[in-house]
Amino acid sequence: MEQKLVALSGNEAVAYAFKQALPHVAAVFPITPQTEMMHKYAEFVANGESDTEMILVESEHSAMSAAVGASAAGARTFTATSSAGFALMWEVVYIAASLRLPICMALVNRALSGNINIHCDHSDSMGGRDAGWIHLFAENAQEAYDNAIMSWRIAEHMDVRLPVMVNYDGFIISHTADALHMLPDDVAYKFIGKYKADYALLDVENPITVGPLDLTDYYFEHKASQLAAYPRALEVIKKVSDEFGELTGRYYDHCEEYMMDDADMVMVMLGSSAGTAKDVIDEYREKGVKVGLLKIRTFRPFPFDYLSKVLAGRKAVAVLDRSASYGGQGGPVFMELRHAMYGQQVPIYSYIYGLGGRDFDLHQVETVIKDLQKVAAGGEMNNVNLLGIRS
Amino acid sequence: MSFIKNDDLHEGGIIRDAGNAETYKTGDWRNFVPEFIEANCIQCMFCWIYCPDSAIEIDTSGDKPIMKGIILDHCKGCGICAHECPPAKKGKSALVMVREEK
User: How far apart are CA A45 and CA A386, in angstroms?
Assistant: First the structure.
């Protein structure tokens, strides 16, 4: 199979990926930096390249509500948002997961207000980390495209039936032209498959009730069955990724391990900054410094077992969060990762960087590597550190 | 009260058994109850149309439906039936709300 090499922005790449699933319904409301993605999709529909029903709504709360309604009706459904738009969806984001609806959503990561800021950080996604969605992160347009293709297979799998959020960094990925390989339409659709809802509101032969009052008698049992889906989702994500790898030659796991085999010191992060870190790691590797990178792709469900195994025995670990947990200790990824490492004697430190789109540059990676060297040699440092802030 | 077994619960709380509201009794929420005065009833079916639950008992065995009374297991005493009931018999309605004594 020939994969076309194209130059597209992340937003365009994801719009193509969604189009290739032949979704029935898209719920649309603009917000920077996501707007361009749905703009591109609207072009497909206007040009007759896609027959997706686009529902133009009046807010993101309505966008997610429309997505829930369409998905419950039996339609393959997607939507997209960023930042404050995701925050406004809040109530319905939980409902989508609780009703076990396989909706896919592009979350083009952007800082939350205030003050108002349109640039990248991960605080929008992290705010929704307990809502029950699957969160996949990407380093570049290729990974965003690939995750968007795989998201349907994961969401609609009978062992999962959960909504999937395809995260990619606002502007850094969404608006930057990048080279990527795209699957031909027929190959992509064959991989994704036709969607058949298990129960659908529009199936009038088999009437159902969706979203009834659920009080002290059954709510907890429904939540228990939802909780049981996440370990299964981890397995399905791996299986689907393996199958995707065989098809495309691009293999994914819950994390990408870069120079990890013999690494004493490890940096852990999400998203586009991994690309910057890899460059600096290459330089330090040439100097003989054993430093590696662990890039988390599946943030929800959090791959606890994977991480505790791969980080066992390392001399120092730095977790870089592009979001903060105000009043908590360090960033969200740090907290979960250190929890995954409970009982192990691996020193783990938190760095918060890049809030509101502050550039993540080579010097910041160097700072972290130098800190890690100090700690690996028995030195001490602060538990929580800010990276790239003016003093 | 007996519960559905966990294995038989549907994911996402979906209910697949249509019409099961009939088994969910809500009549004990009530303070007022509609009193049916059959002599004033003109069989207009307004009460049956407007009842937000399924509390109006209708006999459908004949050519025309016949109002039979109130199913108290499902009546919450909202009073909509009495409000909509037309005072067609010399200004008198067939449904009036009275305080329910318990």
Answer: 45
Six token digits for residue A367: 């700072």
Task: Render A291-340 in DSSP notation, one character per residue.
Answer: EEEEEESEEES--HHHHHHHTTT-SEEEEEESS--TTSSS-HHHHHHHHH
Report if residue B35 sits inside a domain.
Answer: yes
pLDDT tens readout for residues A312-329 = 999 999 999 999 999 999
As a whole number of angstroms, the distance between CA A107 and CA A125 comes to 7
Task: Inform me whether the C-beta atom of residue A313 falls under 8 Å from chain B C-beta atoms.
Answer: no
Q: Please give the single-letter amino acid code of residue A36.
A: E
For residue B11, give the nearest of A161, A207, A212 by CB distance.
A161
**Is A158's Cβ below 8 Å from some Cβ in B?**
no
E strand intervals along chain A: 4-9, 25-28, 53-56, 77-81, 104-109, 134-137, 164-169, 177-182, 255-258, 265-269, 291-296, 298-300, 316-321, 348-353, 384-387
Residues A294/A301, Cβ–Cβ less than 8 Å:
no
Interchain CB distance below 8 Å, B6 and A224: yes
Distance from CA of A217 to the nearest CA of B (A): 8
Number of structural domains, chain A? 2
Closest partner CB to A225 (pick from B9, B16, B18): B9
The residue type found at A296 is I
The predicted model scores a pTM of 0.91
Work out whether the CA dihedral A305, A307, A311, A317 comes out positive or negative: negative
Q: Do A315 and A383 lie in a common domain?
A: yes
Residue B78 covered by a domain = yes
Confidence at residue A191, expressed as pLDDT on a 0 to 100 scale: 98
Tokens encoding A293: 């990178």
Chain B positions touching chain A (beta carbons under 8 Å): 1, 3-4, 6, 9-16, 18
**A320 and A204 within one domain:** no
Could you read off the pLDDT of A114-160 as tens digits, one per residue? 999 999 999 999 999 999 999 999 999 999 999 999 999 999 999 99
A229 & A274 share domain: no
Do residues A182 and A266 both lie within one domain?
A: no
* Beta-strand relationship, B95-99 and B32-36: antiparallel
